[in-house]
Amino acid sequence: MSSPTDGAAIDYVRSEVVTDLGPDELTFLRRTAVLEVMSGPLCDAVLGTTGSAETAEMLESLTHTTFFVVPLDEGGRW
What's the burial of 50, exposed, middle or buried (CB within 10 Å: 0-12/13-18/19+)? Predict the structure, then answer.
């Protein structure tokens, strides 16, 4: 059961955060949202893709464009 504040939170995220992301970024975030931590190879496994260099580029890009993805280590692996 959802509350009125759930709708307000969803509306806020859509209007203030998601509008700045492209379709590829949104798809990536939706499909990897099940992960508690992310790395290129781990995201590839969830996405059913290979070539984690592209995935690593997406993660790097998202660390600069959204607060949903933040680096957990200095090397940028996680």
Answer: exposed
Alpha helices in the chain (DSSP H): 4-12, 23-32, 40-47, 52-65
* Residue pLDDT, tens place only, 14-39: 777 777 788 888 889 889 989 999 88
Instruction: Give the whole-angstrom CA distance, residue 44 versus residue 57.
Output: 12
Angle between helices 40-47 and 52-65 (to 10 degrees): 110
**Using CA atoms, how far apart are residues 72 and 40, in angstroms rounded to an integer?**
13
Residue pair 61/25 in contact (Cβ under 8 Å)? The answer is: yes
This prediction's pTM:
0.71
